[in-house]
Amino acid sequence: MANEDKKAKRLKKWHQKWWGIIFLLLLSMGLLYIGTFIYQFIILVEAQAQINLQNPDFSSSVSIGTDSRSFIETKDDPFLGQEKADIVIVEFSDF
Fold first, then answer.
1. Distance CA 89, CA 91 (A)
2. Sequence-ordered list of residues with C-beta below 8 angstroms from that of 27, at least 6 positions apart, any chain
């Protein structure tokens, strides 16, 4: 009887063994996570497209090649360095 139990354990397929079940659970959780990420990304892209369709002036004013510095800065903003610097680092923070 003991030999038959050992043979039955050896004859189990990989997905019937404990490590196969754990592997399948982890794989399904990973696929669910990736699917959720892709779904959220698609929703974000569609929302951005709707915003661009509703307000085309906003997307053209912030595009590369325009003066985005005037879009961000105001006259009373403190700064360090040259007034007409080539690279501007803007930090938004909250306390």
1. 7
2. none
Q: Among candidates 15, 13, 12, which has minimal Cα distance to 24?
A: 15
Alpha-carbon gap, residue 86 to 80, rounded angstroms: 13
* Token pair 């007409």 in the structure block, residue: 84
- In the Cβ-directed half-sphere of 62, how many Cα atoms lie within 13 Å? 8
Q: Each residue of 70-86: pLDDT tens digit?
A: 677 777 888 888 877 88
Determine phi and psi for 89, rounding to 5 degrees: -105, 120
Phi, psi of 12 (to 5 degrees): -65, 140
pTM, two decimals, is: 0.45
pLDDT at position 87, please? 82
pLDDT number for residue 56: 66
How far is the C-alpha of 70 from the C-alpha of 62, rounded, in Å?
10
Q: Are 33 and 26 in contact (CB under 8 A)?
A: no
